[in-house]
Structures are given as structure tokens and as C-alpha cells.
Amino acid sequence: MSASTPTATPTAAPATTPTLRASSRRAVFWVVIAVIALVAAVIAVIANQGGSSGGPALGAHNPAPIGGMAVANVLKAQGVKVVTADSAAEARKAVASGHDATLLVYDENGYLDEQHLRSLDGIAATTVLIRPNFQALRTLAPAVEAAGTPRHPRAVLQAKCSVPAAVKAGRISAPQSTYRLDNDSYTGCFPASKHAFAMAAYDDGASELYVVGSTDVFDNENVIRDGNAALALNVLGQHDTLVWYLPTFDDVSVTGPPSLGELTPGWVTPVVLLLIAAVIAAAVWRGRRFGPLVIENLPVIVRAEETMEGRARLYQRSSARAHAIDALRIGAVGRIAARCGLPSTAQAGEVADAASTLLDADPYAVRGILLDAPVNTDADLMRLSAQLEELERAVAAATGTK
After folding, report:
1. pLDDT tens, 13-30?
2. 10 Å Cβ neighbour count for 264?
3. Strands 186-191 and 171-173
4. From the centroid of its chain, how far is CA 326?
5. Domain covering 69-251: architecture
6. How far apart are CA 84 and CA 87, in angstroms?
7. How confident is the model at residue 50, as a pLDDT?
8. Domain locations in the chain?
9. CA dihedral 75, 81, 85, 88 (to 10 degrees)
């Protein structure tokens, strides 16, 4: 290169590293999504705290509207010892420690079976069942039957009985459940109809049993209505000790054969996890050795005649005459349709009709060549092959195409 030849001045290539502004723009979308999710979570927590949070329904320490903390605190202020229990065993132990005790049972989820219910029968001087289910009624109060819900859910029910606690209350809010009495051993109070009562009471001189069909009498939200508070305090505050028993999942009896997890030895889980980790590690190790796909041309050229001949030999070896003639017919129909100006979606019958019209030939004969003629022997296959070739030549001659 001579000294006078001008040299090219290198130009600065544009920077390809993303700037802080560009990265921030791409991150805006995900930041907005995260903020929306956070706000939704906060709203859900606040709504939950404003609702039924704080413990189970009628919980003695639950300050929520559905809790029973108000009644429990008033009873404590009156000198009653309130003991909470989460299982039947705890309830029996608490009642045994307090010889003069009241037992409150509210099994909202139906955890107690017949065995647990029988273990509670008669252990306390006074037992209060709040909205018991069918099993609890049959076991602890067999003369009491469910009578459904009252006709007027917002009505106020009068006591109309001689039970002291009901007389002091005078009236209560309409219950969620009512009960029918089978004999005179129970006293019905707060009638919602002629034979349906909001409360059933039993007293044999040694123990008392109350069946109350309303949680409104005891919960924080409704206890101050009508005479609900008076009934709750007089029923639950008759003795020095109140065992506040709300059954939990701990009371559910485990039945049936052992599960697969219980039968599996302890070493199986870590071994399976180790094998899974080994498989993943091997997949990553071997997967990194594979590069991108590379397209390579075949070293030889396979001609169409050779492919057709090989397929024909396969058909001949398996005596697949029907497949062979179908392949020939499909090709012939497509070529004849193109020569007759028909679309590629034309049916074989339409192609046969067009060819017979063009050639002024017998339509049944043309249709037999293209569709209907059976192939039972090699001779039939050769004959139809020749007829297809002859039909194609005739259509090509008539249309002036090759």
C-alpha cells in the first residue's frame, strides 16, 4: 500500500450494553404487578381481621362478633372459673378437677363420634349442648329430635316454661335450630311453633342437660339482644367451674388401615430425593454438551423413481393391493382435477364426472377407474394401473396440457 493511499478511520460502534434507564423501563411492569399484589394482600388481611378472626366460633378468648369472649369474661367477673378444652380428654380432666362443674359443648364441625360423646355423658353436674347434630342428640339426648329452623327467623320467642334460667331470661332471639320432644322427661322452652322449641331442658335431680338451638344466645354480637344474656349467664353460671369445650381435629378418631406413608421406612424419602437430585445433575451435565442443531445435506440423491419402486416392492411383499391402487388413484385424481380446472379440494366423484363430461365417456366407467373398481389380484392391479394412465393421457390430450 502506498503512502498516499488514505486509510479508513475506524468509527465507534454503538453501545449495546443496556443503560440504567432502559433496564428501569423494562422493570416498571413487574414493579407495578408486585405493588398490586401487595395491596391486595393487605386488603385481604384487613378484611379478615375485621371479620371472624381471633379464634373459633364461640371461642372463650375470641373477641370477634362470632366469639364468646363477652359471656366468658362476665362469668369470670362473677367468680366462675372458666376452663377451656380442645379435646374430649381435656374436657373430662377439667370436669373431674372441678367437682361442681358445668360443661359447654359446641361441636360446630361435627368432630365428635359416638364413643367421644358417650365419654361426656353425665360427667358434669350441668351439660349445655349448643346446636348439637343428629349424632349428639341420639347419644346424649335421645328423647330430643331436630325440628328444623323456625318459620320466622327474626321473631322473638317467649319462655313459656317453668325452667328457672328461661323464666329469668323471659325471651330470646329466634334460634337457628328447633327441637321436638318425644316424652315428658324433657321440658320445652321458647316455642317457635306448637311442637318446636328453641331449648330443651332435662333435670333428674343429679344432673341437668340443656339443648340450646341458637348461637346468638352466647356470641358477642347478639348476646345483648332481648334476654339472650340472661339465659346464657343463668345456664352457664350455675356452678363454680365452667368447662368451655369446643372440639377440634384432635378429637377425630383415626380408623382404617395404615397409610402408605406410615408403612414406608424412614430412609426411603431421603434416598428418593437423592436420586432425583442425581438425575437432575446428570441431565444438566449431559445437556450442556449438546450444541445447536446443524443441517447437513445427504451425501447421495435419492431419485423419485427409486422411492416409488421401493414402496411398490413393499406393497407387493405384503400383498397390499388396495393401498397401492389407492396411492395411484389419489395421484391420478389430483392431476386430472388440475387439468380440468377443479380446485384441489374437489371430491373424487366430482373429478370423475368432470373427466367423463370432458371425454364424452361413460361416467360409470370413469368412476369405476377412479373409485369403485375392486382390486383382488395382481392382474386387476396392473389392469387398473393401465386404465388410470390411459385416462390421464386422454384428459391431457383433451385439455391440451402435459
Report:
1. 444 444 445 555 556 666
2. 12
3. unpaired
4. 51
5. 3-Layer(aba) Sandwich (3.40)
6. 10
7. 45
8. 69-251, 304-399
9. -110
Side chain identity, residue 168: K
The segment with the largest mean pLDDT, out of 46-55, 149-158, 365-374, is 365-374
Structure confidence at residue 187 (pLDDT): 94
Mean pLDDT of 272-284: 87
As given in the structure block, the three cell numbers for residue 169 are 331470661
Distance CA 28, CA 76 (A): 57
Q: Which residue has the higher pLDDT, 57 or 316?
A: 57
Q: What is the b/e burial string over 275-309, where b = at least 16 CB atoms within 10 angstroms of the residue's CB?
A: eeeeeeeeeeeeeeeeeeeeeeeeeeeeeeeeeee
Residue in the block written with cell 333435670: 203
pLDDT higher at 372 or 80 = 80
Confidence of residue 1 (pLDDT cuts 50, 70, 90): very low
Measured at the CA of 96, the angle between CA 92 and CA 101, to 5 degrees, comes to 95
How far apart CA 46 and CA 158 sit, in angstroms, is 39
Mean pLDDT, rounded, of the chain? 83
What helix, strand, coil percent values describe the chain, rounded to 5? 45, 15, 40
Contacts of 199 (CB under 8 A, 6+ apart): 163, 166, 175, 179, 188, 189, 190, 210, 211, 212, 213, 231
